[in-house]
Automatic annotation (TrEMBL):
CDD domains assigned: Peptidases_S8_12 (cd07480)
Keywords, alphabetical: Hydrolase, Protease, Serine protease
Transmembrane spans: none
PROSITE patterns linked: SUBTILASE (PS51892), SUBTILASE_ASP (PS00136), SUBTILASE_SER (PS00138)
Active-site feature positions: 111 (charge relay system), 142 (charge relay system), 339 (charge relay system)
PANTHER family: CELL WALL-ASSOCIATED PROTEASE, SUBTILISIN-RELATED
Protein name, per record: Peptidase S8/S53 domain-containing protein
Domain Peptidase S8/S53, residue spans: 102-377
Pfam families from the UniProt entry: Peptidase_S8 (PF00082)
Region Disordered, annotated ranges: 1-26
Family stated for the protein in its record: Belongs to the peptidase S8 family.
Length: 398
């Protein structure tokens, strides 16, 4: 259950808690989300949904990391990156020539945690919290790789981070060591990150719709009923995330605001045929979330192309194939996925935050988002890349 706590004590006993109009007036003064998990009967659900503080109610759904791809090119890509001054992704988004580094920007990574002892994070104050039940730290490696792309320092002379000037990072472990989680952990992580003052929240994860169907089947539900129940839960969670993102947007009235960036998903199979495309999934599909697609270097050298696995209808795109970043335990590794593209956008968002904060423009998330989208480039893309597959284009640094 998602509550808005921003107006809890503002109404007198003789005032209506709900103001006229599509949204309560107190939300416009800045939403303060609070997540509660309850067991409710159907009649209780109807009653609680009438509470004016309640923005949305949805069943808990499983989540999971958006599984990246590793292949035989891993060692070669890592060796090539080690021989270069910066990874191809850092260069592609223009971070290597930007005058901004992400200084004084607070970034949150909601993932599998982080290897705080990795040299890539030397000098970064890491604020860690576990919402998965498996303890802080990263045994899976996904969160460490993503964090390295956002704000990692150079490793063995190779720049891996888009915004290496970030000195304060909020690390919410919302996925367990096996990469699994649920919406309770994710929502609590987002609530916590907002309270920590995060200006950018990066999420390379998705809702596990097939997993929920299978879980219901395992509990004895017939497949058609299991699918219907999972669809109902997915729909309710989409509405909940839409409500949460409206509250995030409303916070800009009382603070600088927050940009939320999420991976579009890896379920498409364009190598099979043009009809094998899947649209952006939750949470990237929610209102106000910046959905990120993945780009790859063309084998012919004629520009960047959409990765075959990248889901369609992203808002913006970034390098997502052969991305070299931090490995748990030290060193570097190469991974591919929209999970790898998302931290490039989060890092560039940090650069734009710094740019805006040092300009006469209003230092708000709306300003940063406008600059982020308006400066995306299409010229580096190969001819024939569909706008539906790459969004406004390749994210670019100030």
């Amino acid at each position: 259950m998602l509550r808005d706590m921003s107006g809890v004590s503002t109404a007198s006993p003789f005032e209506s808690a709900r103001q006229p109009g599509p949204e309560p007036a107190r939300v416009l003064a800045g939403g303060e989300p609070h997540v509660e998990v309850l067991e409710l009967a159907k009649h209780e659900l109807r009653d609680i949904s009438r509470d004016p503080e309640v923005r949305a109610v949805a069943p808990v759904m499983p989540t999971m990391l958006i599984q990246p791809f590793e292949n035989g090119a891993d060692e070669r890509a890592t060796a090539e990156a080690a021989a270069a001054a910066a990874t191809w992704g850092v260069k592609a988004v223009g971070a290597d020539v930007s005058t901004r580094t992400g200084a004084d920007v607070i970034v949150a990574v909601l993932d599998t945690g982080i290897d705080g002892n990795h040299p890539a994070f030397t000098g970064v104050t890491l604020i860690q919290e576990d919402f998965s039940g498996s303890g802080v730290g990263d045994k899976q490696g996904h969160g460490t790789h993503c964090a390295g792309t956002i704000f990692g320092r150079a490793v063995a002379g190779t720049r891996i981070g888009v915004a290496p000037g970030v000195t304060r990072a909020v690390i919410g472990k919302v996925l367990a060591d096996d990469g699994s989680g649920d919406t309770e952990g994710l929502l609590r992580g987002m609530e916590w990150a907002l309270r920590q003052g995060a200006q950018v929240i990066s999420m390379s994860l998705g809702f596990d719709f097939p997993g929920m169907v299978q879980r219901l089947v395992d509990l004895g539900r017939q497949p058609k009923f299991a699918t219907s129940l999972a669809l109902e839960a997915y729909r309710a969670n989409l509405r909940l995330f839409d409500a949460l993102m409206r509250m995030v947007a409303a916070r800009e009235a009382v603070s600088s605001g927050t940009l939320v960036v999420a991976a579009a998903g890896n379920e498409s199979e364009r190598q099979t045929g043009p009809d094998f495309e899947i649209a952006v999934s939750l949470p990237a599909a929610a209102e106000g979330v910046i959905a990120v697609g993945a780009l790859a270097q063309s084998p012919t050298g004629n520009g960047l192309v959409v990765a075959p696995f990248s889901n369609t209808f992203p808002q913006i795109s970034a390098p997502g194939v052969g991305v070299v970043s931090a490995r748990v335990g030290g060193g570097l590794r190469s991974l591919s996925g929209t999970s790898m593209a998302t931290p490039h956008v989060a890092g560039v968002a940090a650069l734009w935050w710094e740019e805006v904060m040092k300009s006469p423009l209003p230092a708000t998330s709306s300003t940063v988002l406008a600059r982020l989208l308006a400066n995306a480039a299409v010229s580096p893309l190969a001819s024939g890349v569909d706008i539906a597959d790459r969004g406004v284009g390749l994210v670019r640094s100030p």
